[in-house]
């Protein structure tokens, strides 16, 4: 059986890390695409030269022509600009919306059967726009945010409880902004929900609240430390988990920005919710119940995403 083809549109910090991880996990042959000629070729060659040392078989190539993505099975989109200190994800909308238009056209022409994972921010609006520009079926395009936000929360929790990150599960839903919704009731250590762990004295409500807040601002914390760009290791690892679930039909249940058509009372938006990713793409949306506080947080997050969509429509009339 031929190897899968993975196209990475954007070969910057996240794109390069994605290529390396895809190689290490032998997910398939990798094409890096970028408008900055030389970068995708250079990163591809560099990673290919690491393969004999680490012992993985995959081909790497770089391109600045969309024809190179032809027939890709999976496409991961990071093309665009990242945040700098003082910027919110929403400040990127004008530039990155234009980028999504050209990426969408490239996908439509050369890889309309691919499973597409969008990472470019502001995520929930960019994945919505990319679906419109590419015309992809809504089960074949998702945004990467929830896996990353949940991973950040899991890291903070494991650190606080002094337990393995493997035994901590967490759900962070809603939009990928500062009003995302970390669901404490559905987050556990080995199946024990966090509120029970507060009762058991493993942590205090104040500390838990602080970890929730740190999760919400997790992206900004990295931007402020790096100063020259935004996070890339954890975002890349998160998208690779999603790609692997599709390519290997693992049917993992992962929080992703998925198209909703009535679930959670929402129609026509991409919002972070738990989904099953398998060979059919988005195979199922898992609808969890909210208590009134969670519902209020979720509604606030939805309102922010709707605001971004309206801004996109204002910038590009074709989306209205
Ligand atoms: N087509 C293809 N590539 C493009 C285009 C375009 N129209 N415009 C920009 N790029 C490329 C840039 O040349 C750069 O190599 O996208 C790459 C982005 O890489 P970085 O600047 O290193 O950004 P990165 O950290 O990888 O983040 C990319 O993901 O998390 C989000 O907010 C982040 O939107 C940003 C994206």
From TrEMBL:
Active site: 176
The protein's Enzyme Commission number: 1.1.1.37
GO biological process: lactate metabolic process; tricarboxylic acid cycle
Pfam families: Ldh_1_C (PF02866), Ldh_1_N (PF00056)
GO molecular function: L-lactate dehydrogenase (NAD+) activity; L-malate dehydrogenase (NAD+) activity
Residue ranges of every copy of the Lactate/malate dehydrogenase N-terminal domain listed in the record: 5-143
Annotated Lactate/malate dehydrogenase C-terminal domain residues: 148-310
Residues that bind substrate: 83, 89, 121, 152
Binding site for NAD(+): 10-15, 34, 96, 119-121
CDD domains: LDH-like_MDH
Reaction(s) catalysed (UniProt annotation): (S)-malate + NAD(+) = oxaloacetate + NADH + H(+)
Domain of life: Bacteria
Keywords from the named record: NAD, Oxidoreductase, Tricarboxylic acid cycle
Keyword NAD (UniProt): yes
InterPro entries per record: L-lactate/malate_DH, Lactate/malate_DH_C, Lactate/malate_DH_N, Lactate_DH/Glyco_Ohase_4_C, Malate_DH_type3, NAD(P)-bd_dom_sf
Family: Belongs to the LDH/MDH superfamily. MDH type 3 family.
Functional description taken from the UniProt entry: Catalyzes the reversible oxidation of malate to oxaloacetate.
PANTHER family membership: L-2-HYDROXYCARBOXYLATE DEHYDROGENASE (NAD(P)(+)), L-LACTATE DEHYDROGENASE
Official protein name in the record: Malate dehydrogenase
């Amino acid at each position: 059986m031929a190897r899968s083809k993975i196209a990475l549109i954007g070969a910057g910090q996240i794109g390069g890390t994605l290529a390396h991880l895809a190689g290490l996990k032998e997910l398939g042959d990798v094409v890096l695409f970028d408008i900055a000629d030389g970068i995708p070729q250079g990163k591809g060659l560099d990673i290919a030269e690491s393969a004999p040392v680490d012992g993985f078989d995959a081909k790497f190539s770089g391109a600045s022509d969309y024809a190179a993505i032809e027939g890709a099975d999976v496409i991961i989109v990071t093309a665009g600009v990242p945040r700098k200190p003082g910027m919110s994800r929403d400040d990127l909308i004008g530039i990155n919306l234009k980028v999504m238009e050209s990426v969408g056209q490239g996908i439509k022409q050369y890889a309309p059967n691919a499973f597409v994972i969008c990472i470019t921010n502001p995520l929930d609006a960019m994945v919505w726009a990319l679906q419109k520009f590419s015309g992809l079926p809504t089960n074949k395009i998702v945004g990467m945010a929830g896996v990353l936000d949940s991973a950040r929360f899991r890291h903070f929790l494991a650190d606080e409880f002094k337990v393995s990150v493997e035994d901590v599960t967490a759900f962070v839903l809603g939009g990928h902004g500062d009003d995302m919704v970390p669901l404490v009731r559905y987050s556990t250590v080995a199946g024990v929900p966090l509120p029970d762990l507060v009762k058991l004295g493993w942590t205090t409500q104040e500390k838990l609240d602080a970890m929730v807040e740190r999760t919400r601002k997790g992206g900004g914390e990295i931007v402020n430390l790096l100063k020259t760009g935004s996070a890339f290791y954890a975002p890349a690892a998160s998208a690779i988990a999603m790609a692997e679930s599709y390519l290997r039909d693992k049917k993992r249940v992962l929080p992703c920005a998925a198209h909703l058509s009535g679930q959670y009372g929402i129609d026509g938006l991409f919002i972070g919710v738990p989904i099953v990713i398998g060979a059919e793409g988005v195979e199922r949306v898992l609808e969890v119940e909210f208590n009134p506080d969670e519902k209020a947080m979720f509604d606030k997050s939805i309102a922010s995403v709707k605001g971004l969509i309206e801004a996109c429509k204002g910038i590009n009339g074709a989306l209205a």
